[in-house]
Amino acid sequence: MNYTEVLKALNEASLFDLYRLNAAINNQLADPARLAAVKRALVLGQKLRYFDGPRNRLIEATLLRIDRTRATVKDVEDGQQWRIPFFMIDLEGRDVQIAATSNRGLDRNSLSVGDRVAFQDRNGQERYGEVIKLNTKTASVLVKGSRWRVAYALLSPVIDGDLGAPEPELLPAHRPALSGS
Questions:
Q1: What is the per-residue DSSP string for 90-142?
Q2: Terminal Cα distance for the chain, rounded
Q3: Which residues are CB-neighbours of 67 under 8 A, at least 6 positions away?
Q4: Residue in 154, 103, 104 with CA at minimum distance from that of residue 126
Q5: 51: β partners
Q6: Residue 146's closest CA among 163, 158, 129?
Q7: Nearest-CA neighbor of 101 among 2, 27, 1, 5?
C-alpha cells in the first residue's frame, strides 16, 4: 500500500469523511478473523517489527508472549517490554515511509523521532538537531542540549555527514506506555 497516495486522497476528505473512515477502520482492527490470522503467524522468540505511532517509526522487537488481542514484546534497542495490540505488528515488512505531502517542507507524517533535521532560527542561523517529539503543529528538536519547537514546514531533512553538520546530542526517546486492553 502506498501510504503517501492514500494520505493525499485523505487530504481532500471532509472532517466527517475522516471520522466515518476512522469508524470503519476501527471495526477492521477489531475483526476477530484478522486478529486470528496475525496470532497464527506469531511464534514466541520471533524477531518482529511494530509501528510506534507517537514516534512515527518501526521498532525492532522480540516476541515474548501472545495474549488474546495483544503481544508482549521486548524492544531490541532499549530492552524495554511493551504490551502492544496485534494491529501494530508489521508481518509483511511494509515500507511505512510517507513522503511530505505539501510543497512547503516536511510534515508530521514524513518525520520520525530520531530523524536529523536542519532549520534556520529567527536570526537566520542554520541549526542542526534530532527530532525528539512530534507535536500537533511543531516538532521538538534537540540542538546541542537545547530543546526547540519548530514548525514542520521550517524543517529540512539532514543526511548523515551533510554539510559537515555537528552530531546532535542524543537523548533517549520518550514513549508513552502502550499497555492496556
A1: -SS---------SSSS--GGG--TT-EEEEE-TTS-EEEEEEEEE-SSEEEEE
A2: 28
A3: 83
A4: 154
A5: 58
A6: 129
A7: 5
C-alpha cell at 142: 534537540
Q: What is the pLDDT of residues 55-105, one digit of tens each?
A: 889 999 999 999 999 999 999 999 999 999 999 999 999 888 877 665 666
pTM for this one? 0.70
- In the sheet that holds 116-120, the strands lie side by side as 146-151, 138-143, 126-134, 116-120, 156-157
Say how many C-beta atoms besides its own lie within 10 A of residue 158's C-beta: 18
Category of 33 on φ-ψ map: left (φ > 0), alpha (ψ -120 to 50) or beta: alpha
In the numeric block, which cell numbers belong to residue 121? 532560527
In the 8-state DSSP scheme, what is residue 51? E
pLDDT, tens digit, 9 for 90 and up, residues 26-38: 999 999 999 999 9
- Cell digits for 178? 502502550
